Amino acid sequence: MLFNGGEKLILLKRDPPKKLLLANALLRRLDPNHELFSYYTNLSNRLQAGFQGEKRVDRHWLEITNLDKHYLLFNYECFNEFGFPHQIDTLLLTSKFLLIIDIKNISGRIDYDEDKHQLIRTNIDGSFDSFSSPFDQVIRHGQYFTRVFNQLKIPLPIECAIISSNPSTIIGNMPKHPLFFHVSGLRFYINKLVSNYDSVLSAQEMDRISKFLMANLKRQEPKVEIPIEHLRKGVLCEICNFKVQMQYRRGTWCCSKCGVRNKKAIFQALDDYRLLINDRITNQEFRDFFGVHSVYTASKVLLRLGLPTVGENRGRNYLIPENIIEGGPF
Question: Are residues 193 and 240 in the same domain?
Fold first, then answer.
């Protein structure tokens, strides 16, 4: 649990979405001529723009100082009683209300067709794009929490809002509820909610709900089914835009093209392996993927990485943690 200020408790921080990490790993490992390379390029660009938009919205919470003790959960995911997922950009839990926020980073002019439940963007050149209804999405989230709170006998009002993180977006015809507004209006929207509601939860009840939310956190695990033979193997040189496989020499990784030497380049490569292939690796798999021919050298490298292990001798697997990219004992 992280604390930000005296009464603001951030239970879930904003991490890059797993789909974005997967797409970026594939862009490092796929040949540019691969049939799926352009697809993952577009996916990465779209997800990166959305992630940056979410972070722009997150910064505005620092200026909201009129809330009593409250909890923020970014990128909250769970499954409902029917087994279907809910992915929520931001949850705000207060003693007065629960706020569900969906964040959109869409340029151009956007209008909503209520009869067709369709968000329509008008581009500068006059062309149109359609998007699924964010209104249906946040209302569905709200209905789920209404069912949950009714079951738990929690009399907490639930509010929903859709926020545009792109300052150039022109918000056209929209329903009156839930509200769709620019991020600059977040502080004023929160002020209005605070004024409209009275506290219905004690600090102990809020703590209980926050623990319930965290206990029910369950993320979807996106998977990529691309044969390993389609992937570039090895530790790839970042300076050469991940086009050149580096060689292990005397305790470091060396690029034969640009001459760079980098002990930490292995961490990005291991993270790619974790995302695209498996979160555990044997000595033989390490040698095959990273181009290390000696069993002894591979054992020494894996030992220096300090990875946790399961099994013994030839059955030993080295576990690749999610934070491997942050580095190890080197």
Answer: no
User: What is the tens place of the pLDDT at every residue in 143-173?
Assistant: 999 999 999 999 999 999 999 999 999 999 9
pLDDT at 260 over 60: yes
Record the pTM: 0.88
Tell me the three state secondary structure of residue 25: helix
Considering the domain architecture, whether residues 289 and 144 belong to the same structural domain is answered as: no
Considering the domain architecture, whether residues 167 and 258 belong to the same structural domain is answered as no
How far is the C-alpha of 326 from the C-alpha of 213, rounded, in Å?
Answer: 28
Q: How far is CA 297 from CA 87, 290, 322, in A?
A: 44, 12, 24
Q: Report the CATH number that the domain containing residue 315 is assigned in CATH.
A: 1.10.10
Asked if residue 20 lies in contact with residue 27, where contact means CB atoms within 8 angstroms, the answer is: no
Torsion of CA 268, 270, 276, 281, to 10 degrees: 180
How many angstroms separate the CA atoms of 221 and 77, rounded? Answer: 11
Q: Is the torsion defined by CA of 272, 273, 276, 280 positive or negative?
A: negative
Q: Which amino acid is at 47?
A: L
The last residue of one of the domains, among 188, 215, 242, is: 215
